[in-house]
Specification:
- With about 525 residues, the chain is mainly α.
- The protein has three domains: about 1-145 and about 275-370, Rossmann fold (3-Layer(aba) Sandwich), CATH 3.40.50.620; about 370-430; about 440-530, Arc Repressor Mutant, subunit A (Orthogonal Bundle).
- About 45% of the residues lie in helices and about 10% in strands.
- It contains 22 helices and 14 strands.
- The strands form six sheets. The protein has a three-stranded parallel sheet with strand order 1-2-3. A three-stranded antiparallel sheet has the order 5-6-7, with no helix packed on it. It has a two-stranded antiparallel ribbon with strand order 4-8.
- Helix 3 (about 110-125) links the parallel strand 2 (about 65-75) and strand 3.
- It is found in: Cytoplasm.
- One of its GO terms (biological process) is lysyl-tRNA aminoacylation.
Length: about 525
């Protein structure tokens, strides 16, 4: 993708990373990294932490170079609070490592961390994101960082000098290592003494327990975050790792880590773009029903993996964007389908083409797609009208777009069905009337009745194009205009009034799905019955 170097942010970062890797570690696999804490639902903002290095690592692999994407699971972090909806008795676990906290009630997983890791692992597999996962619990408890911990403790005065530049209050007896209590397993501990020669460390815990251990042999504690992160950069040889905007304020882990990594651990700070906020439209409804913020797994229930990948690939990390769980998802899919047509017609701009290719596949192959890409808004309307009845859905899609088997429109059909079921407000659901609204029909004037007769007479052209021409053409015919007449403000007003009348007669509302789709779903005989023709 060298032709995209000036327009595609992924290619530009790949160029930088390859150049830096050749300088730092020639001949070795290039290391990109991410970190996630499974302390709760891993939301769509967190997905940017993984998707950004994934796209860069994938571009490097596309160029034939060896590249590994490390994903550190920060499952040795402390359990900080009991979320809403969880038994308050879980407060007894506050301060324990996430892997030592029981999973939420009813979970099939062994601990809190595994419960929240599992949906993200499944989502990454569906998205084609290949990582080498690292459990920080396993790393720390296996002694993988023992030497680095001893270095950090030995250099604690140097680390403290860096941190003190950003503190409003000075700290006495700074210590960069936090033991987990051997009795209660919590980190409510205070280091009371340390001997640099013997590495003997004494601590006390708020639970009343205390002991003396040899840090050179101790595996039940961890470095504090602002030291842990740069330690890992050096230990893993990370060349590229992004970080959220909150990590770039003065005194943050990214800023402080950049000063610690070289002086203390002999490493170098990665190339690290700051990534911006990912917003959600329709989140309020979702939060109230789900009890949490939307995750990648939630998004993949209503959109295909390539579309979700595209949202992250087409925006530079520093650009914020929103993911739609409301009606905007239909417009999003319209954009996606339009881009697909541009790519097929070789009309896409280089940056558009690069983002599309990164969305539909990776260095290892293509992601599954929908063979027959019927518009999402059409599928949503059809499954709404038919309440998901397979035979009725197939009948309509056959008439609409020549679909012979529902497998042709999957998985998009299933995503649209899930969106209708979970996110379409009840007052916007379509329920076709069982019998004519005789009271409304009796109240209509001569022109309105004439418009309904013209509609009924034109239903013989039973195609989406024919029905579209019909519903827009009835007001034109009544105005004495040709079917291809340009719309004037007066004509548009007449069309809106006609559409509103049809919606009232068919579904009892002023609005609804696109009328041609609705007419095709209802069927000609039933339409004639409901409009009184």
């Amino acid at each position: 993708m060298a032709d995209n170097a000036e327009t595609d942010w992924v290619s530009r970062f790949a160029d930088e990373v390859i150049s830096e890797a050749e300088r730092r570690a020639p001949g070795k696999a290039i290391v990109c990294a991410s970190g996630l804490s499974p302390s709760g639902p891993i939301h769509l903002g967190n997905l940017r932490e993984v998707m950004t290095p994934h796209l860069v690592a994938d571009e490097i692999r596309r160029r034939g170079l060896e590249c590994v994407h490390l994903l550190s699971w920060d499952d040795y972090d402390r359990f900080r609070r009991v979320p809403a909806g969880i038994d308050p008795s879980w407060a007894e676990h506050i301060g324990k490592p996430l892997t030592s906290v029981p999973a939420p009630p009813g979970s099939p997983y062994s601990n809190w961390a595994e419960h929240f890791k599992a949906p993200m692992v499944a989502a990454m597999a569906e998205l084609g994101i290949e990582v080498r996962g690292i459990s920080q619990t396993q790393q720390y408890t296996a002694g993988a960082y023992r030497e680095q911990i001893l270095v950090a403790v030995r250099e604690r005065a140097r680390i403290d000098a860096v941190l003190s530049r950003y503190r409003s209050k000075q700290v006495e007896d700074y210590f960069p290592y936090k033991p987990y209590c051997d009795l209660c397993e919590r980190d409510l501990t205070t280091v009371t003494a340390y001997d640099d020669e013997t590495t003997e460390l004494a601590y006390t815990c708020e639970c009343g327990f205390g002991e003396t251990v040899r840090l050179a042999e101790h595996d039940r504690g961890k470095l504090v975050w602002k030291v842990d992160w740069p330690m890992r950069w050096a230990h893993e040889g990370v060349i590229f790792e992004p970080s959220g905007v909150d990590h770039h304020s003065p005194g943050s882990a990214w800023i402080v880590g950049g000063q610690i990594v070289g002086d203390v651990f002999g490493g170098a700070q990665p190339i690290g773009p700051m990534y911006a906020f990912v917003g959600i439209t329709g989140m309020a409804k979702m939060s109230s029903s789900k009890g949490d913020v939307p995750t990648a797994a939630d998004a993949l229930e209503i959109m295909e993996a390539p579309v979700l990948r595209w949202l992250y690939a087409r925006r530079k990390p520093a650009q914020s964007f929103k993911i739609a769980f409301d009606q905007e998802i239909q417009r999003l899919y319209d954009e996606w389908d339009a881009l697909g047509r541009k790519v097929a017609g070789e009309q896409a701009q280089p940056a558009e083409l690069a983002a599309y290719r990164r969305a539909v596949g990776t260095a290892t192959g293509w992601l599954p797609g929908t063979p027959h890409a019927v518009p999402y808004r059409t599928l949503a309307s059809v499954v709404d009208i038919t309440t998901g009845h397979a035979d009725q859905t197939l009948r309509i899609l056959r008439d609409l777009d020549g679909v012979e088997d529902l497998g042709e429109v999957r998985p998009r059909l299933d995503r649209a069905q899930r969106w209708v079921d979970d996110h379409l407000p009840a007052d916007q659901r379509t329920r076709v009337r069982e019998s004519p609204d005789q009271e409304l029909l009796d109240s209509l004037g001569r022109e309105e009745l004439e418009s309904l007769r013209l509609l009924a007479d034109g239903l013989d052209d039973w195609s989406l194009e024919g029905l579209t021409t019909l519903v827009y053409g009835v007001p034109k015919l009544q105005a004495g205009l040709a079917a291809d007449a340009k719309a004037t403000p007066e004509l548009k007003a007449a069309q809106r009034a006609f559409f509103a009348l049809l919606y009232k007669l068919l579904v009892g509302r002023d609005t609804g799905p696109r009328l041609p789709t609705l007419l095709m779903a209802v069927g000609a005989d039933r339409v004639r019955k409901l409009v009184g023709a």
